[in-house]
Predict the structure.
Amino acid sequence: MDKCKGFREFIVEEDGMGTVEVILIIVVLVGLVVVFKKQITEIVNDLFEKITKQTDKL
């Protein structure tokens, strides 16, 4: 019976992610984009060049 009570408490008390956690995740992602902006831009430009070359062949 004790195991069942613990499981019920876990289900009831589980609130999911809060606003603070979501804001922290967004801040970290924005920070990574700022730090790696040059590399991300180069990768995206290379991809667009390859797509353009492939569509020219069609």
Summary: The longest helix spans residues 37-57. The chain has a mean pLDDT of 84.
